[in-house]
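Preliminary data (for renewal application), glutathione complex.
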Amino acid sequence: MGHMIEGKYDTADDVSATMASGEWERSRSVVRNWITHDGKPGPTGEGGFAAEAGRYHLFVAWNCPWAHRTLLTRAFKKLEKLISISVALPNRTDQGWVFDKTGEFSEPLYGLSAVHEIYSRDRQPYTGRLTVPVLWDKQQQRMVSNESADIIRMLNSAFVDIAPASADLCPAEKLSKIDEWNGQIYKTINNGVYRAGFASTQKAYERAAFELFDNLDQVDEQLSKTRFLVGDKISEADIRLFPTLARFDVAYHYAFKCNLRRLMDYQYLWPYARQIYQTKGVAETVRFDIYKKGYFSKSEKRNPLGIIPIGPTIDWLEPHGR
Ligand SMILES: N[C@@H](CCC(=O)N[C@@H](CS)C(=O)NCC(=O)O)C(=O)O
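Predicted structure:
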């Protein structure tokens, strides 16, 4: 997959390195401005990004779990009419994430043919990986952020005065607990599946895979006691966990060899995942068919023939009983 140096696209693969130990490491995002209600700077980056209806746009792909968090937050915060989206095709090419000319995967904002074109449109020359999600300011023609963790936090707070009423996903009194879960879940579960799937030695794979299931077990235990990770209301921690759960049995279990247990085998985690799936607005952010296309796309190392499995069959609409 390509990257960009000083605003110029380069098809060469630098990207996420596999270290000598066989461990796979995700490189960091680089554009980290914040939308705030009054345009004052957020915790990082520059100011000038005030919350306004219709001003911002998200570039996403259905199969990307990091983009999925932003779509979930957009849904939970009732921002669908305020923030528009462009959805890239599930299979990346030598141009990285690309769009179709027409239909569901065409790019409505500027008619772009690839996500790297939005990075080169930014007035500040960009250097780095060309990832989704990207939060874009249509007014200034600038990238606000390409870090999903920041994007979901700003979407939670910045639009409260102009969007319909919605629940606070990060209430102050629960923030430290939310951050604690976020840290654990990111390392061992969200990124854990990739560390297992992209490991290049037996040892690195086993370390990541065992750690993943150990942490899923811990989450299951928590969900035996509380409806959501942090008490009885959904929070940002649940929003960050759900994209991995949604992809688990259909993709990670098989494509990334995360097969000690299935999500379906968990007593609490599986009904909890269905509970979130059955919440208004969530099913519209989920595309199991696309997950399979993306995770089983042709890959020399993982799936050389690019054959997509027919199953499994999973009933996400089964009553959750929680
Ligand atoms: N830290 C970023 C990571 C996003 C990310 O890694 N996205 C993947 C897709 S799931 C991507 O676009 N990769 C393209 C590449 O690395 O070239 C975030 O969470 O926003």
